Amino acid sequence: MKPRLLIIENNLISSLTMRDRLTRELMKDYEVTILSTGNEGQKKAAASRGFHVVEVGASNQNPLGIIKYLLRLRREMLRTKPALVLTFTIQIGRAHV
């Protein structure tokens, strides 16, 4: 059995676009689960690529919404018991040259 790996994304579109190749490579050595949110089209596209997606919603600016999101993440982490967790965030601001 392969070790489990969780990828936590704010939106599934990231796994389908800029992290598609990374996710496919990781699937060779890990049982990959993506914790994210997305529309039905994105979920179908992910399933067609063999991605296992668990809907956890997304974080937002509402404190109660953030707490619910964190609890969903925690529940999935306890359920899957991953060997590794990859998280991604965007950096807002000016690019430095």
What features would you describe in this structure?
There is one protein chain. With 97 residues, the protein is an alpha/beta fold. Helix content is 42%, strand content 20%. It has helices at residues 13-16, 20-29, 40-48, 63-80; strands spanning 4-8, 31-36, 52-55, 84-87. It has a four-stranded parallel beta sheet with strand order 3-2-1-4, sandwiched between helices. The longest helix is centred in the last third of the chain and has 18 residues, at 63-80.
Output the keywords.
4-stranded parallel β-sheet; alpha/beta; 97 residues; 4 helices; 4 strands
Short overview:
The protein is α/β, with parallel strands linked by helices and 97 residues long.
Q: Compute the gyration radius: what is it?
A: 14 Å
Low-confidence stretches: none
Roughly what is the average pLDDT, rounded to an integer? 90
Order of helices and strands: EHHEHEHE
Strand content: 15-25%
Regarding quaternary structure, what we see is: single chain
Please state the overall shape, judged from the principal axes of the Cα atoms. globular
- Per DSSP E runs of 2 or more residues, the count of β-strands stands at 4
Spatial strand order of the main sheet: 3-2-1-4
Determine the structural class based on helices, strands and strand pairing.
alpha/beta
Biggest sheet statistics? 4 strands, parallel
Calculate the terminal CA-CA distance, rounded to whole Å: 45 Å
Proportion in helices: 40-55%
User: Helical element count?
Assistant: 4
